[in-house]
Amino acid sequence: MLGLLFLLCFATSKLYAQQKIRLKFEQAPLNQVIIFLINQHNLQASFNDDKLSQYLVTVDKSFDNSHEALEFVLKDSPFKQEQNRGVCVITAKKENK
Which pTM was predicted? Predict the structure, then answer.
């Protein structure tokens, strides 16, 4: 019984450890970082590939989930994201005039 409990705890800890998202990009186009999150971490996102490809990001950090990672890479960028039915819609921030 004790062995089964240990095995269950070990499996659960491995599951949670695998959920961390590690982003390590240097001067990478923003669209490639987002495509990585889409392909590797099931992020659902809509964005203009050409516009995001023109913005470069550097990041070396771990995150608890893909939404947290996305918020981090967008925070100092000229882009913002909004949720629409479970999809992250990434658009340009409006300039203040």
Answer: 0.77
